[in-house]
Hints:
- The structure is a single chain.
- By secondary structure, this protein is α+β, with helices and mostly antiparallel strands.
- Among the domains are: 3-100, no CATH class; 106-229, no CATH class.
- 53% of the residues lie in helices and 7% in strands.
- Strands 1-2-3-4-5 form a 5-stranded antiparallel β-sheet.
- The chain is flat and about 90 Å long.
- The termini are far apart.
Amino acid sequence: MSKREITVEKFKSKFADVVRHTRLEVVDIVIALEKMDPTKNLQYVPWLAKQLINEQFKFEDTLRVKTILEHFETLKPRLAKRDINQFSFYELDETIEQVLNPKIGIKEAKKQEGTFPVVADSDVLYNGPFGQLAIPKTAQASKELGLGTKWCTTEPGAFKQYNRDGPLYIWRDRSGDKFQFHITTKTPSKVRLVDAQDRYIKAPEAKQFKEHPVIGQIIKEQDKIYRQYLVDEKKSQEERYLAQEERNKAQRQIQREHDRIHDLHKFILDEYGINVKHIKKAKTYPGGLAGFCKDVLDEKWDKIKPQMALGPRSSLEFAILVIKGRWIEQEPLIAKHAVSWTMYSREILGTNNMTKEGRTARDKMRREVLKTVGLKLTAKMKKLPQW
């Protein structure tokens, strides 16, 4: 007998209610269950039959049932229970949902099956299939959570200094790998993770952590806070500082504002590659420079496109970073600027500026572009860097 025939024989008497409601033959019911099973050997069909008999799902739930089983196949190594027969369909659905969309918080963590034992004097925010996220409340807890690492926070003095400025977060991956990050409560900052060797996690690995189902929630939320901090307008003017404080205090506040603007520009450069210093007449943009920066962070490309079109360097950056291809109407303006055209021809037009043939092709295309607006290459314009 085939596997299908065995299943039909095993469940045909138990499918009486299903047959009556669906008006299907038993063999057709089994075929429908086979379509819900994502495994090659159809190992979940008997379990599906039991769940259908117990009214755990309906036939119209085919896509949903198959999706949950596909997730179970992928996530099974992370689950405490790996035998599907230990679940009802409702329990499996809830378990998969908790893994895919984990909830962070002390109350939620208490309901979870712990991957690691809880260290005394630590607030556990998550302790499930992905690992454990904890905040040490004492130097001893920080030392225990940091065992096997090179973190200075395993020492009482360093822990107290960090803890005074905000909570330390310690993430232990299911594999046992440890990572740490610190969030300040006074001045918002970007989350920077360090590994067990106390080395900063850099891109692209840092971006992978941003998409992590557990600590990614904290990183994204802190990014929002930091972005808002960077784009917030000054709440008071220099005169107010001078009137309310001594001159030296006012100057420090002004310096902090300069630092904020500098960090905002650097943040945009790091995130998108756009150099705000290349933006011409940014003060004429709605909301001024701060308005322009906020629209970049919100990726309102259609809105900032006219501003980017005012200069050759900004036009070049928009073509490379946003359009990712030719910006034909801006090519004459880009061609007027030696460095911009060199980069544009290399990155967009594909010229090899390291060779004589490539530079010849670059210059020929430049002459043709300038000719469309009635311009010729001048001696000054011909002085191009040999890239």
